[in-house]
Amino acid sequence: MIVKGLKIKDYRNFNHVDIELHPVLNIFMGDNGQGKTNLLESIYMCSIGRTFRLNSETELIKFNEAGSKIEVLVDKNNHNLKISLLLQKNKKKTSFNQRR
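^ that's the sequence the OP posted. Answer follows.
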């Protein structure tokens, strides 16, 4: 599976992120606390369905926001897929896959 793109809204320290990823190599650089691990965690969340850092998923939602959305665009076996995850406070997470 190749991750081709990532869209994030109100997740952790991000308001809005929309990035296209290279199919071979991507390097995330920045000072501590800038969101490098948050980007990786968002992809992990869509892949596995849970975070690798916390017990409470509501902590993933940006402070003072009602919810968060993550979309990961992937190429799996030459099929383009969009995996979406919606997190809302006091509700169960919602995920869905869509062929593109």
